[in-house]
Amino acid sequence: MSITGVQAAPGGGGPPHPPGDEGELGANNLSVPTVFVPGSAGSPFGGTCTDGDDSVDPAGTKGVDTDGDGIPDEHLDYWVQGIATWQADCAEAAADTLTVGAEWGDNLQNAPLKAGTPIRVEIGLFADPTAFPMPGYTVVKLDPTLLDRESHYGTLGVEESPYPEVRAWDGGATLDIRTTDGSVVVADEIAYGAEVNSTGRVVYGYNWQKPVGGEYLITVTTPAVGLGATDAGTLSDSDGDGVDDTVTLVVNVGNKGGGNGGGNGGRPADRPRGGNGGQGGGNALGRG
Fold first, then answer.
1. Which of 7, 40, 145, 227 could crosslink 36 through cysteines, CB 3.0-4.6 Å?
2. Could you tell me which residues belong to the region Disordered (predicted)?
3. Helix (H/G/I), strand (E/B), else coil: 97
């Protein structure tokens, strides 16, 4: 792997999905600029990326019709996910030309993980926004008193260029989850799926159902991009080419009474810096 691309610049994201929810693949508008490697085909993004500006101004109807009379009556200043349409800019990059940063969902680091309670395993990849100066849109939660999964999300439609955050997607990313002694294998180097969440960010996610108590290694490998930084865990070179492409996090799942996550600090892989965790079920903090 010969990296000639950008240096990692970790950023934030939106609230993660709760256990049991696979997310709205392709249903949400891409709001944060993203670099797709080696291309957008097969990604959760349903649009296309060209060499030009692919951003699209919001279109459709502002607000939400809550009473079914055909007239929006809430959030009238906002273009809302699932109702209006818009798109951030995007780019494609060849394999082995990009270095990114990785951030784990902080439910894996700061919240107790309990046996028998589903665990959401998320990670976000971040490219350097100075190397990819692309426009995007900021999407916010519109119903602060509701659970994250029940709230609407929307944007004022003001394009920010360049956007201060750029996501990345590696179409060949894999996920491996097993106990440190190898006696329990949860995921054996499976394809790691991603989604465009409610804040318009590309985030990898996996629902770990009915976890058994013990100490586990969660390993993510990105064969098409190099990893230059991580907010927790250990970076390593899986193929011996001198470039780190794997990040491993150790987590502890407690037996009914609870347990401790792995690593230190951090935030959900898809929540903005300084944001608050949402409210959700299981071993996850809210949803998007």
1. 40
2. 1-31, 46-70, 253-288
3. coil
**CA-CA distance, 271 to 273, in Å (whole number)?**
7
CA distance 55 to 73: 28
DSSP 30: P
Q: For 114, how many CA atoms within 13 A lie in the half-sphere containing its CB? A: 12
Q: Report strand pairing: 246-254 vs 214-221.
A: antiparallel
Q: Please tell me whether the peptide bond between 112 and the residue prior to it is cis, using omega within 30 degrees of 0.
A: no
Q: Where are the alpha helices (DSSP H) in 84-200?
A: none
- pLDDT of the residue at 260: 52
Establish how many alpha carbons lie within 13 A of residue 80's alpha carbon, considering only the half-sphere containing its beta carbon: 19
Token digits for 252?
């502890």
Rounded percentage of the chain residues whose pLDDT exceeds 70:
80
Amino acid identity of 20?
A: G
Residue 100 near residue 7 (C-beta atoms within 8 A): no
Of the candidates 138, 130, 128, which has an alpha carbon nearest to the alpha carbon of residue 160?
138
Strand, helix or coil at 190? Answer: strand
Query: Angle 118-122-123 (CA atoms, 0-180°, nearest 5)?
Result: 165
What is the C-alpha separation between 5 and 94, in angstroms, rounded? 10
Token representation of residue 84:
């209006």
- 275 confidence band (pLDDT: 50, 70, 90): very low
For residues 64 and 80, the answer to whether their CB atoms sit within 8 Å is yes
Place of tokens 């439609």: 157
Q: Taking 90 as the threshold, does the pLDDT of residue 279 lie above it?
A: no
Asked if 167 and 34 count as a contact pair (C-beta separation under 8 A), the reply is yes
pLDDT tens profile 153-183? 999 999 999 999 999 999 999 999 999 999 9
| pLDDT confidence band for 262 (50 / 70 / 90) | low
